[in-house]
Amino acid sequence: xxxxxxxxxxxxxxxxxxxxxxxxxxxxxxxxxxxxxxxxxxxxxxxxxxxxxxxxxxxxxxxxxxxxxxxxxxxxxxxxxxxxxxxxxxxxxxxxxxxxxxxxxxxxxxxxxxxxxxxxx
Length: 121
Prior knowledge:
- There is one protein chain.
- The protein has 2 domains: 3-71, 434 Repressor (Amino-terminal Domain); 78-121, no CATH class.
- By secondary structure, the protein is an all-alpha fold.
- Helix 1 runs antiparallel to helix 5.
- The chain contains 7 helices and no strands.
């Protein structure tokens, strides 16, 4: 699942909308909407996010937050470590190799550290 897919599913559920009804309202197939919600499709473009906001009546800060989540929601990430230290390359490769097996609390801690909110010393 991606941050955008999780949020869109949450918004749809909060409004009591069936996926097929929302898909029809957005002009996409139910299969596409499901794949997007489950992180099996790439990051949605801005036009699609705008249509979702219009359909759900989302404005201002909530619309900006949804776009931010869409921007962070590519399910197949490439990390370019060219020009960085050997440790940075090792970290990127180690994370890629083990991320599927990390406990959720470890993922949350690492994300907090990367965002700058962790205790770094």
